[in-house]
Amino acid sequence: MKIAVLSDIHGNVLALDAVLADLDRRRPDHVVDLGDCVSGPLWPRETLERLDALGALTIRGNHERQLATLTVDEMGPSDRFAQAVLDGEQIGRLGRLPGTAWVTPEILACHGTPQDDNTFLIDAAEGGRLVRGHAPAIADRLGDVTARLVLCGHSHRPDLVRLPNGTLVLNPGSIGCPAVEVSPEPLVVTESGTPHARYVMLDLQPDGQIHAEFIAIPYDHEKAAARADANGRADWAYGLRTGLMPRA
Fold this sequence. Notes:
5-stranded mixed β-sheet; single chain
């Protein structure tokens, strides 16, 4: 069985289209989307239309929850941009997505952690950027979950970790937002280092082995960056062009 794992598209329909073209070639049996689908200064409505047609198993990320529950004044700029172009039915549907889901009896999908969509499962802040955290801390955040494989997103940083109990924890990285500011004070950023759209293809073998292929797809990131610039988000534009965040 082949399972494509997508996450953190953030309204970047150009990056999503490049990934969907790759999926047409690879032909997975199932597609899982770990959330944060549309919030960002790019193409929220078009992205949601693509995902509606795809019919993936989709998890509610923190941005879907925020879109559905916060007032406009409480929202950050990425959510406000999406809220302005989506209708009430679309926002309500995003808010009703499940917070977690079992992809198979052994594979659990979430956005942040199984308990909290706004907590990083694998990552820790070090030197002003997100890096892989220590295994005991990851296990603590996982709690009593006994899945063989846990899929998570949220940090935009691709990684695969094996915990001492044998559980694998996988983050496919971000399709549409390769670098972003996580916290302004103290400043913490997450950076993939390139503009590529990233996702993972899982191959579940008959002998029980799990193969995980981390895939980086090029696309017209300059066009996406120009869109962010036109919508007043120079920080996003820089990240989309470089996979890095600007330094003061």
